[in-house]
Write a structure and sequence with these properties.
Elements (H helix, E strand, L loop, with lengths): L5 E2 L10 H7 L15 H21 L6 E4 L2 H17 L5 E4 L5 H12 L3 E4 L10 H7 L4 E5 L13 H10 L3 E5 L18 E5 L10 E5 L25 H39 L4 E2 L10 E5 L5 H10 L2 E2 L15 H5 L4 H4 L2 E5 L6 H25 L1
Parallel strand pairs: 1-11, 3-4, 3-5, 5-6, 6-7
Antiparallel strand pairs: 2-8, 7-8, 9-10, 10-12
The protein binds pyridoxal-5'-phosphate.
């Protein structure tokens, strides 16, 4: 009898949690009002979004007026990086400092700033996958508008030194943004403990639907909006509020926080077992970014003599869903920019496979992945040979 498939791609997206779905459903039909209307339907919708905003703020250690709801992590990153830069550069600060390991949403926003006259600078990355603080110090000068460095890398899971970077940015008079999309629910994410100006999260990475996210905007930090047309969200993000999605995000965030420590302990044990077993059964297997601090649910590896596509295909034939790293890059043959920045040789970088564990992952699944892995490597090597 065929075994049920195994989903090891929780860093790409997660299923909507039943509690989240249940909480949001009434706001599609029975409670469908427009939060800007003054009648009872509108007041009901306003009360629901206000309450959701308060809960989201509480989950981030922020105030409700510091939360701007967006269509997801990508928009949150665009709003912070480009919206923040546009304000600052008007004050004579053209610099925008980021890293080569950011999500495309940040990198492309920085490129857009460069097209508008910005000076883009990239901080160097060490072989371990951690950005280099000396390089950061050289780049973060007093002509810099925005510094944007992710909290947790979405390919390796490596945790970045955001506290040190935020302090450097502040000392230079720049605003600091962190993409916390892969950090929320795994690390304690508190907007007050570190002087963040902007911090992005995305709901679908922890049990809310796709296309809802938020950016924390510190009180007093200015932001140029990307959209125009209304006064919603203090004009920072106009458009009729998405009430069900706001409720969903608040519910998913609270659940993720309540369960964070137990989830992390469970996933760390499973990930460490998976890593140790794969290292033991495949000679030469390389784990990327395993030396420094890493979130507990991610494993990014390369098997010499294979390539990512062959590995993913061979895993898929065994019922295992993994990724080459960033979802946006799968299907393309360019090796990961993250691994290239870490100085990983091209043949290994082009063989990268990311396994990310989550709510669906069980110990029995981990054992099955370990059991089929030698066969996966054999077929991937055969495929890689036939393509090469
Ligand atoms: C998924 C992801 C994003 C994009 O979020 P969406 O909600 O899918 O637009 C941004 N940054 C990181 C690190 C991510 O993993």
């Amino acid at each position: 009898m065929p075994q049920p498939p195994i989903y090891l791609d929780h860093a790409a997206t997660t299923p909507v949690r039943p509690e989240v779905l249940e909480a949001m459903l009434p706001y599609f039909s029975a409670k469908f009002g427009n939060a800007s209307s003054t009648h009872r339907w509108g007041r009901e919708a306003r009360a629901a979004t206000d309450a959701a905003r308060e809960r989201i703020a509480a989950c981030l250690g922020a105030e409700p007026d510091e939360i701007c709801l967006t269509s997801g992590g990508t928009e949150a990153d665009n709003l912070a990086v480009l919206g923040g830069w546009r304000v600052q550069q008007g004050l004579g600060r053209p610099g925008i400092v980021t890293t080569p390991i950011e999500h495309k949403a940040v990198l492309a926003s920085a490129h857009q700033a460069a097209r508008e006259g910005g000076e883009e600078r990239l901080i160097a990355v060490d072989a371990s996958g951690v950005i280099n603080l000396d390089s950061a110090r050289r780049h973060i000068r007093d002509d810099v508008a925005v510094v944007s460095v992710m909290w947790v890398n979405n390919e390796t899971g490596v945790i970045q030194p955001v506290a040190e970077l935020a302090a450097m940015a502040k000392a230079a008079g720049a605003v600091f943004h962190t993409d916390a999309v892969q950090a929320f629910g795994k690390l304690p994410v508190d907007a007050r403990s570190i002087p963040f100006d902007f911090l992005s999260v995305s709901g679908h990475k922890f049990g809310a639907p796709k296309s809802i996210g938020a950016v924390y905007v510190r009180r007093g930090t200015a932001l140029a909006p990307l959209f125009f047309g209304g006064t919603q969200d203090r004009g920072r993000r106009p458009g009729t509020e998405n009430v069900p999605m706001a409720v969903a995000l608040a519910t998913a965030m609270e659940l993720a926080l309540t369960e964070r420590e137990a989830t992390c302990a469970r996933l760390r044990a499973l990930r460490d077992r998976l890593q140790a077993s794969l290292l033991a059964c495949v000679p030469g297997l390389v784990v990327h970014g395993c030396a420094p601090e890493r979130v507990p649910h991610m494993l990014h590896l390369s098997v010499p003599g294979t390539d990512s596509e062959s590995m993913l295909m061979a895993l898929d034939l065994q019922g295992v869903a993994a990724s080459s790293g960033s979802a946006c890059q799968s299907g393309s043959v360019t090796p990961s920019q993250v691994l290239s920045a870490m100085g990983v040789a091209e043949d290994l970088a082009s063989a990268a496979v990311r396994m990310s564990l989550g709510s669906l992952t069980t110990g029995e699944q981990i054992d099955r992945v370990v059991a089929v892995f030698p066969d996966v490597v054999r077929s991937a090597r055969a495929m890689a040979g036939s393509f090469g």
